């Protein structure tokens, strides 16, 4: 499979993403062109019963662009991967949905975001969650590990999307669910390769 990005491209993209999202971990407000926090959760029709359990400091950390839980049912006892979990808000919703018999793993490449996620998880005293730092396109999990994989506004940041989809398929159980929400480019002039790399994190 052809990778259109050089090693230098990939290093540049990752550094820019890390720079932006280390700031987002501290304060997501004003970092995006769209609504974040509790207002976004309400607008995107997240489960109101769970939403009402979130302290303001936790709800304020939400900066997704969609609601993956509208794409399918999460059942009690499932094992879930939140790919690109960020500050852990979707992870918290998944944790509540799978119950004590389930398990949710949050994976992210930004240490500061995982630090924010840990604070949010600890605030709610969740025991069925874990966090994993990843710096590699290869997922560290065995084949057929997860019942469901959720992801919110992460795929647009990944250079080699074909490889990622293959990895996600590998770690999904047979008949598992991939529930992804994201941003898409529509219309306008596509930038040349160099400009795309230079503005990737935007």
Structural class: alpha/beta
| CATH structural class | Alpha Beta
Number of separate helices: 8
Give helix % range: 25-40%
The CATH superfamily is known as Vaccinia Virus protein VP39
Poorly predicted runs: none
Distance between the termini: 26 Å
> What would the principal axes of the Cα set say about the shape?
globular
Describe the sheet with the most strands.
5 strands, parallel
Range of strand content: 15-25%
Number of strands: 5
The radius of gyration is: 17 Å
Secondary-structure element order, as H and E?
HHHHEHEHEEHEH
CATH topology: Rossmann fold
CATH architecture: 3-Layer(aba) Sandwich
Strand order of the largest sheet: 3-2-1-4-5
Q: How confident overall, as mean pLDDT?
A: 88
What's the number of structural domains?
A: 1
Keywords: Methyltransferase, S-adenosyl-L-methionine, Transferase
Organism: Psychrilyobacter piezotolerans
InterPro entries: Arsenite_MeTrfase-like (IPR026669), Methyltranfer_dom (IPR025714), SAM-dependent_MTases_sf (IPR029063)
Family: Belongs to the methyltransferase superfamily. Arsenite methyltransferase family.
Can you describe this structure?
It is built from 8 helices and 5 strands. By secondary structure, it is an alpha/beta fold. The chain is globular. The chain starts with 6 loop residues before the first helix and ends with a helix. Keywords: Methyltransferase, S-adenosyl-L-methionine, Transferase. It holds the Pfam family Methyltransf_31. This is Arsenite methyltransferase.
């Amino acid at each position: 499979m052809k990778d259109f990005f050089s090693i230098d491209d990939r290093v540049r993209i990752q550094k820019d993403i890390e720079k932006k999202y280390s700031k987002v971990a501290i304060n997501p407000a004003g970092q995006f062109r769209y609504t974040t926090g509790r207002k976004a959760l309400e607008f995107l029709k997240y489960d109101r019963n769970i939403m009402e359990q979130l302290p303001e400091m936790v709800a304020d950390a939400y900066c997704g662009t969609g609601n993956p839980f509208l794409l399918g049912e999460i059942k009690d006892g499932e094992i879930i991967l939140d790919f690109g979990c960020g500050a852990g808000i979707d992870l918290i919703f998944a944790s509540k949905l799978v119950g004590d018999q389930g398990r949710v793993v949050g994976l992210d490449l930004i240490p500061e975001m995982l630090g924010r996620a840990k604070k949010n998880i600890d605030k709610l005293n969740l025991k069925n969650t874990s966090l994993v730092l990843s710096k590699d396109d290869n997922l560290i999990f065995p084949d057929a590990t997860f019942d469901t994989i959720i992801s919110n506004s992460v795929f647009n940041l990944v250079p080699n999307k074909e490889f990622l989809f293959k990895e996600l398929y590998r770690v999904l159980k047979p008949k598992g669910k991939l529930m992804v929400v994201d941003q898409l480019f529509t219309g306008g002039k596509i930038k040349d390769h160099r400009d795309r790399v230079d503005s990737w994190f935007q």
